[in-house]
Specification:
Elements (H helix, E strand, L loop, with lengths): L3 H9 L7 E4 L18 E4 L3 E4 L22 E7 L2 H9 L5 E5 L2 E3 L4 E2 L14 H7 L3 E4 L11 E2 L14 E3 L3 E6 L2 E7 L5 H6 L5 E2 L10
Parallel strand pairs: 1-2, 1-5, 5-8, 6-9, 8-10, 12-13
Antiparallel strand pairs: 2-3, 3-4, 6-7, 10-11, 11-12
Length: 217
């Protein structure tokens, strides 16, 4: 199965030349490390950065340059910094071509829960609500199961929702899946992962058509 970097590397293949891309907290932040060098992509962070680059090497971090998850980042030539109002204006105005988010749960109809676990203290939903309400192309990066081995791809989310019917595609450590009207459509398997293992790890409806290829990463 894939590790977090493997998930990010596979998602990087979804990033096209000329895209403006928002990277959520967690695994999505790793995607910038794997985008092809022969295409031009603008990575946006909701705290007010456009033109993010890969993570800095150890010892080269600038504590004043961070992403929305408070991680130190690099910036590419031509990068710009602005206030959150401008940043959310870009998001709400649908000027972002691709949004990549982490999630705790995704339902077979595309609902996403990624901001709150009941009983745990959180400051608020943050920018996630704006992203899922405005974006038309959302890919989720997540582990297929939780630490107890239970599926995170469900018939219905059990945690408080962030957005309804908004997720288009999911890349996990086991598979690539598309959200359809009928359920999760299996597109690719992680290297060495069997179809049976994916079925066992998926609570929601899993649609399997013909031969399912292994991921190319």
């Amino acid at each position: 199965m894939l590790d977090k970097n493997g998930i990010a590397k596979r998602i990087a293949r979804e990033v096209k030349d000329g895209y403006y891309v928002n990277l959520g907290i967690g695994i999505p932040t790793l995607v910038a490390n794997f985008v092809r060098s022969d295409i031009s992509v603008e990575f946006q962070s909701e705290n007010g950065v456009l033109g993010m680059g890969p993570f800095p090497y150890e010892g080269e971090e600038d504590p004043d340059i961070i992403n929305a998850g408070k991680q130190t980042i690099t910036t590419l030539p031509g990068a710009s910094f602005f206030d959150s109002a401008t940043s959310f204006g870009m998001i709400r105005g649908q000027h972002v071509d691709l949004t990549i988010l982490g999630a705790m749960e995704v339902a077979e109809n595309g609902d996403i829960a990624n901001w709150k676990i009941p009983g745990k203290m959180v400051k608020g939903m943050g920018g996630a609500m704006d992203l899922v309400a405005s974006a038309e192309n959302i890919i989720v990066a997540m582990m297929h199961t939780n630490k107890a081995g239970k599926s995170k791809l469900l018939k219905r989310c059990t945690l408080p929702l962030t957005g309804v019917g908004c997720v288009k595609k999911i890349v996990t450590n086991l598979a690539v899946l598309e959200v359809t009207d009928q359920g999760f459509k299996l597109l690719e398997r992680a290297p060495g992962i069997s179809l049976e293992a994916i079925k066992e790890a998926t609570e929601g409806i899993l649609i399997v058509q013909d031969e399912v290829p292994e991921m190319e990463i």
